[in-house]
Target: Cystathionine gamma-synthase
Amino acid sequence: MRQKTKLIHGGKGIDQATGAVNQAIQLSSTFKQTQIGTFHYEYGRTGNPTREALEQLLADIEEGDHGFAFASGMAAITAVMKLFSPGDHIIITDDVYGGTYRFFTQFLEKETISITFVDTSDVTAVEEAIRKETKAVFIETPTNPLLKITDLSKIGQVANEHDLLFIIDNTFATPYFQNPLRYGADLVIHSATKYLGGHSDVIAGAVVVKEDTLAAKLAYIQNATGAVLGPHDAYLLMRGIKTLGVRMEEIETNTRQLVKFLQRHPNVDEIYYPGLVNHPGHATHALQSRGFGGIVSFTTTSNELALQTVERTRYFTLAESLGAVESLISIPAKMTHASIPKERRQELGIKDSLIRLSIGLEDVEDLAEDLEIALTE
Ligand SMILES: *Cc1c(COP(=O)(O)O)cnc(C)c1O
Model:
């Protein structure tokens, strides 16, 4: 099955019992046992048919064998971190999503799981950070908000040589453009709130794995910790995933045109987009991914202009989040990345004048005009 077909016909496909082309929303929290211990579903936290249909679809589109749906991307990340024990050490991409940074620094370290933030686009730096207690490497590529690129094959090799779990948050690239399990990743995580849902109407998270023993551990954690996705939200995600392909193609077309517009604009300084040939990760990303996506960040000539821009746009909504049909605009330093200390943000290059755009599906001419007006001093 090819990409777009799989988004529509993957997972369980048509409902066998009724012929319905959509999966039913099964609200039952408990299920009859014909004898004690004889059942298909037992209790809604442990298993639910709607969630299960979504989980099979997630596994298919990410080229894995087992999918797990959680109440949010952070719930998915939290569950994955339950695989580790006190004393373990994890290497993590230095400019990860702000919520991930907060979780790792505020909660993991308390559980005496130590972490080292590394620029994972530098494979040597990753190798140098490995200790005897190191159990995993957790990456994002492209990263948020600077779109840094990590080489999946190289990290896969390093992880394999040192017996580390290779975990990737694949939210930005989406399974339509990038399938990290091909390159040696063990666990792929998504904030399904973003492109998978695609319509800003559901908070959800996903994990996909290939390996059966890892899947059994995750199933145990999912049930034991309980942050499962509800059936209504599972349905919404399946609905969103059907159009992921067309959305990503169109979003990328819009993004390429807007990047050209930004390149010509006198009040725009640096542009961060992996589709640009002068982006340091361009070639690596082009090898491991089928598209450059719809997130672009840029700095303006002053902090004031950045503030003015995000407050002035009409079609770009000033809001957190990304990956939906409507275009969004934000200042990461003041919003998504505000939980990262200022000095740390400066080290990473997340300036106060940095604007992040999540390009949607509006007419690109309207989006360009919108930015043109907002960026005029
Ligand atoms: C939004 C996001 C998360 C967190 O997901 P939620 O669904 O908001 O909990 C994690 N990683 C990345 C890259 C994100 O963009």
